[in-house]
Design brief:
The protein has about 425 residues and is an alpha+beta fold. The chain is built from 16 helices and 11 strands. The radius of gyration is 26 Å and the shape is elongated.
């Protein structure tokens, strides 16, 4: 009867058992397919239900389950449900804060990720995803008329952005959308000096952006003798969420040794598909212009991943080398004791497990828009018909009649998914101060 060396064999058995989780051996885009398919077909409530099932083994995908469900409710206009889900996602992130190892990982999770792959670890969100989560939560709070909670989320987003910069020496701006929401909330609340500070910082990041320039000029008028004239007008503020993020895909390199073979696998974002260029906004049959990009999310995502890809790659190399050493050691000892064929079989079996488990972590927040655009303009008070369109061959979206009141903005959120537009039901202007 064959008798294998105890220590190396135990390592292989532990490795195999740790790999037997479905969420460890499958890729997140595959797991999320039903939710994404429903989302792309405009079935947002069903999509949210499917996303809620994505917790994964030991809650490894809990952040994504809440973040994706929240976005489905957000696009559907169910702001109470979207804020509830997003707060739950942030509680997952907060749960990692005071843990003793890098990225909030426990020693057990770190060891398991070195043994199998990074999908064994709970996903606590890419830095830019957490920052945008705070920003979208602030936007929905603002549309609900909750200015204080909107500002709390903006400030928490600033804090997390600073944390990411310190951790990865990240120089990528990740919070233009949040800063815009902050300035808008402060404008509505009459905190003009604070609004001006945020707008000036935005102007440094994106000089001559038409919405930033308009907003700066508005604040200047509100702090001058023109205040009364400015408040005699209403406003429209449109946030256009364009498309959705591309999936992550694996970049792989295969290798072989005398007794085994394996691969190294690291993530990257796939190429972006076709998307709308801008959203044209008409109020009372007057063209107010088109939205302009404020946050190119997909590029921020790529930069954010690049900031930590060296660590991800180093970890993959170390993990793959460790697996290969175990396989080669066991195969060599079995060969010496039981002959060439026994060693070959052990090497082959170990290599297959190695190749199967060495898989890049492709988890990401897939329902995020790939681009966030904005438009802000003066509107005469009264009831006005609003129509939005992306031009080309896509049909326009008739939003119906909105009531514009002097000194109060109408806040509208529009999403482009494929060749269709979706708008959240209007937020009552009565909910704003």
């Amino acid at each position: 009867m064959m008798r294998f060396p105890k220590a190396p064999t135990a390592a292989i058995l532990l490795w195999f058992c740790a790999s037997c989780s479905s969420s460890v051996l499958t890729n997140y885009p595959e797991d999320a397919f039903l939710g994404i398919d429903a989302f792309e077909h405009g079935e947002f409530s069903y999509a949210a239900e499917e996303f809620a099932l994505l917790n994964g083994t030991l809650g490894s995908n809990e952040f994504l389950a809440h973040a994706e469900a929240g976005m489905a409710y957000h696009v559907d206009g169910n702001l109470e449900a979207s804020t509830r889900e997003w707060l739950a996602a942030l509680r997952v992130v907060d749960g990692f804060k005071d843990r003793p190892t890098i990225s909030g990982r426990s020693l057990t999770e770190g060891a398991l990720s070195m043994l199998v792959n990074d999908k064994t670890m709970p996903y606590d969100g890419e830095g830019f995803e957490v920052v945008l989560l705070h920003s979208f939560l602030a936007w929905d709070y603002l549309r609900l008329g909750n200015l204080s909670d909107a500002m709390v989320e903006v400030k928490r987003g600033y804090e997390f952005e600073r944390f990411e910069k310190e951790r990865y020496e990240n120089t990528t701006g990740m919070n233009r959308f949040g800063r815009f929401i902050a300035a808008l909330a402060q404008d509505i609340d009459g905190q003009y000096n604070d609004a001006r500070i945020d707008l000036d910082r935005l102007a440094e990041q994106i000089p001559n952006h038409p919405v930033v320039v308009y907003s700066q000029q508005r604040i200047k008028r509100l702090q001058s003798s023109e205040r009364g004239e400015e408040l005699a007008f209403s406003e429209i503020v449109v946030v256009f969420e364009n498309g959705h993020m591309p999936e992550k895909v694996a970049e792989e390199i295969s290798y072989s040794t005398k007794r085994s073979f394996g691969r190294i696998s690291v993530p990257r974002f796939a190429n972006l598909g076709n998307r709308a260029r801008a959203l044209r906004v008409e109020v009372a049959n007057e063209n107010l212009g088109s939205t302009v990009s404020l946050e190119h999310v997909v590029q921020v995502g790529r930069n954010n991943l690049n900031d930590r890809i060296a660590w991800v790659t180093t970890k993959a190399l170390l993990r793959s080398a460790a697996k290969t050493i175990i396989i080669d050691t066991v195969a060599e000892e079995v060969e010496e004791e039981h002959g060439d064929w026994a060693g070959i079989l052990v090497g082959l079996a170990g290599s297959l497990i190695n190749t199967y488990t060495e898989s890049a972590d492709l988890r990401s927040w897939l329902t995020l828009p790939n681009d966030i655009q904005v438009l802000r303009a003066r509107v005469e008070p009264g009831e006005h018909h609003i129509v939005v369109s992306t031009g080309s061959n896509n049909p326009p979206l008739d939003l119906g009649i909105y009531s514009f009141e002097a000194g109060t903005p109408v806040l509208i959120s529009v999403r482009a998914i494929g060749n269709r537009l979706y708008a959240s039901p209007r937020a009552s202007s009565d909910s704003l101060p």
